[in-house]
Amino acid sequence: MWLYLLQGIGYGLAAASQPGPFQTYIISQTLTRGWKRTLPAALAPLISDGPIILLCVLVLSQVPVWLERFLYIAGGLFILYLAYGTFKSWKNFDSQPSQTESAGRQSMLKAALMNALSPGPYIFWALVTGPILLKGWRETPINGIGFLAGFYTTLVSGLAAIILVFGTAAKLGPKFNRTLLGISAIMLFCFGIYQLWQGLHPA
Question: Which of 16, 27, 11 is nearest to 155 (CA)?
Fold first, then answer.
């Protein structure tokens, strides 16, 4: 089991640290809502990945081209929507984080939806981690459980660390906070355009 646990930890660390629209989104939420209300978003993969794993590991041997294109387009549009929201937050910047009680839940649900609409998790589970999970599970279920435990413990911890780091950085002042928020909006916009391009012009 230990081999699969270590593999899970390694892949979880890679997934958490890889720059992408999901990480950019939780950073922008940290800057606008504060780290306490954004922290639940670190749990978003636990919500969205279950159906993805079942689809990719148990049903699909590979992601169909049409599904990959659809996910790129749908994900690109959703990311552009989030970029617009981040831009509005930058334009109407308020140095005080949002105080609504439902902010944490909304952040988590939006983050889960973004993850579900992104082709990354489907490709990742179909081509990379899925075969490892299947191999371990066939040897003994405890291997598969160990792999999943290592992966998601590290992934969630890594995402939480990103939120805490940027939550601390935001305390450097409103100007620094607003600058980071503007950068997040630009990055989300670029990610959205790139995903649309990938969906409309496949290689």
Answer: 16
